[in-house]
Amino acid sequence: MIAQTIQLALAPVFVLVAIGNIMNILSSRLGRVVDRSRVLQQRHRETEGAEHDAVVREIRMTDNRIKLIGRALLLLVLSGLAIGLTVALLFLEEFAATSLQPFAAGVFIVAIALLMAALLLFLRETREATEALRIPRDFLELDRKL
Questions:
Q1: Is 33 within 8 Å of 62 (Cβ atoms)?
Q2: Number of domains in the chain
Q3: What is the extent of the structural domain holding 13?
Q4: DSSP 8-state secondary structure symbol assigned to residue 97
């Protein structure tokens, strides 16, 4: 019976590995965004006028990206904890000879919902990053034929 429980616990463990990989990606992005925010904060002190306004806009976008990544990481951690609880419930059910499958299923559904919410925040953050990287129209010189 323990072999069957181990087989049953494999699917949640694979989800846990995926969560870890996504957390690694988000942590890397967070590091880059924080580095960019430090550069922008320095430029904030050194700029005036339209250039200063552009820096402030980018600082605001960077701040929002940091918040989105932080929330996504929180949701991923909670999802990982729920996955761990799911596995623990499956093993506890085996050793306690009691029916915990409805609870394990509920916790697993919560874990997947948290993962999906984190992925939606990740999507929003990447959209913000894309918006921040847009090249201003005046640099494109769209009125010129090249």
A1: yes
A2: 1
A3: 2-133
A4: T
